[in-house]
UniProtKB/TrEMBL annotation, chain A:
It comes from Nonomuraea turkmeniaca. InterPro entries: SoxG, TrmE/GcvT-like. This is Sarcosine oxidase subunit gamma.
Automatic annotation (TrEMBL), chain B:
GO terms for molecular function: sarcosine oxidase activity. Coiled coil: none annotated. It holds the Pfam family SoxD. One of its GO terms (biological process) is tetrahydrofolate metabolic process. It comes from Nonomuraea polychroma. This is Sarcosine oxidase subunit delta. It comes from the Bacteria. Gene3D superfamilies: Folate-binding superfamily (3.30.2270.10).
Amino acid sequence: MAERRSPAAAFADRFATASKSGALTLAEIPFLRQINVRVDPESPAAADLGAALGVALPVSPGTAVRSGEVTVAWQGPDEWLVIGPEGYEAEPLRAALGDRHGSVVDVSAQRTTLLVGGPRAREVLAHGCAIDLHPSVFGPGAVAQTMLARAQVVLLPQQDGFLVLVRSSFAVYLAEWLLDAATEYVT
Amino acid sequence: MLLIPCPWCGPRDEAEFHYGGQAHVAYPADPGALSDEEWARYLFFRDNPKGSFAERWSHSAGCRRWFNAVRDTATNEIHAVYRVGEPRPVTP
Ligand SMILES: [Zn+2]
């Protein structure tokens, strides 16, 4: 059987070197479980999915809620992205939806996750992102689908830094871009 | 660069959006009954005003939802954005 490799695996050493200065932390968090959920937020099925997740689906645009190790991020008025550890299973969500109108799809292979942390994280991202990343308007509990260096990303602000979910085929490009944008802070 | 206010996500760069042409162009009730000329008129003929224009946009790099905007074609000022299915609001 083929060995599984994460999209940015080849950058582990360069990320580690760039993280040594303390100004910035760069790392890939590979193989997180990502589940796309679509359902009418007003429907009983949405309530049942919320019960299965342990937290109600957030209906305010640009918000994300946590339930234990799982983050539920708003993606659209009837769409959410559930992000959990590798072992988190989609099956209970599928069972909660049943055969009602909606969908629960494992999209874990679609994107990998890059951690951009440390005191300079916001400045590095701001080199290529037009939205306001200041914690007063974009802190933990927020989520944005936007463009970073012209690549489509999902940004999830954390207590320290940001999770950047990027399409697998864009991960190498974005990793190179991050290392380049970080040059002035880590050397 | 235009700053376009997505009705869901708020103001975002124009680069996150796709343009969808004139809004409120209804699909013909009975397409089979149309003459070639009438069908061509439905497919290809659009208003081209200088001033307020109701048009469709998709927030393709964000929430991926279609919405409508009233934009002044001369100044690029966006007078209103509204969700699909809502009537065109009264604007200057
Ligand atoms: Zn949007």
